[in-house]
Amino acid sequence: MPTSCYIDTNIFLNVIYAEPLFKRGSTLLLRAVQDGRLLGMTSSVTLMEVALDLAKTRNGDKIDQALSLIERTANLRVLPLDSLTVRLAAGLVLDNGITIHDAYHGATAIENNASVFVTRDRVLRVRLKDSISISEPEHVATT
């Protein structure tokens, strides 16, 4: 059975913006999901964050295309928030001092039993390390 990985928003943004230092590793991870070597999951919050980031950077004309690509990625589940996720997220905010959006990501990963949380956010990695296994895309894509 393939490893299940939660994919944080920054991984998608690495590819959307073709960020020189990060695009390759993030693309490898998303291809591994697309090919079924990994099972991917992300939160509906990711869609909101991608849309807001594109709008903020004056790329609003790319929002529909970017969200459609994420939603159509094979072997990637976009998970909704529910009351259990929100309760777990509140605990992560209070116990770990993370932002509400990051708490939604962490709670979604934990509630859905992700094997690994994939992010480039160093602060989030430190604050979630006792709650879930954390890694960068390059390490997950090549295992």
Describe the structure.
- The chain is an alpha/beta fold and 143 residues long.
- It has a single domain, classed as Rossmann fold (3-Layer(aba) Sandwich).
- Helices cover 56% and strands 14% of the residues.
- It has eight helices and five strands, in the order βααβααβααβαβα.
- It has a five-stranded parallel β-sheet.
- α3 (44-56) packs antiparallel against α4 (63-71).
- The longest helix has 14 residues, at 83-96.
- It is globular, with a radius of gyration of 14 Å.
Mean pLDDT: 95
Q: Secondary-structure element sequence?
A: EHHEHHEHHEHEH
Give start-end ranges of low-pLDDT stretches. Answer: none
Specify Rg, calculated over alpha carbons.
14 Å
Annotated CATH architecture: 3-Layer(aba) Sandwich
Sheet/helix structural class: alpha/beta
Tally of DSSP helical segments: 8
> What is the name of the CATH topology?
Rossmann fold
Topology:
Elements: E1 3-7, H1 9-16, H2 23-34, E2 38-43, H3 44-56, H4 63-71, E3 76-79, H5 83-96, H6 100-111, E4 116-118, H7 122-128, E5 134-135, H8 137-141
Parallel strand pairs: 1-2, 1-4, 2-3, 4-5
Helix pairs in contact: 1-2, 3-4, 5-6
